[in-house]
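User
New here, help please:
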Amino acid sequence: QVQLVESGGGLVQAGGSLRLSCAASGRTFSSINMGWFRQAPGKEREFVAAITWYGGIMYYADSVKGRFTISRDNAKNTVYLQMNSLKPEDTAVYYCAANVKGSGVSWSGDYWGQGTQVTVSS
């Protein structure tokens, strides 16, 4: 079992930045791949970014590539999502996921946080 708690969401103007954090507890954090997903109102949940257990490889959705950066600190059992140049279309509930697997746009996770709201105003 892995418990995940996201934080860092909020309201920001277009062009601004936010950093989301996801604190993990339970199973050995440093041995599992982690990811971020989001779900906008009326839309399905979509993959945003993923990072391997050792932090060496990152994956991004095309819509966030070059603007978002995923990172992790295994000593703190925490994964981050730095979001820059935010756009109104980035507005969504952002979820942290553990033990993620996938490729391209098709990803899944075994454990999920409760989500944190990100709202970008125009």
Q: What stands out?
A: The mean pLDDT is 95.
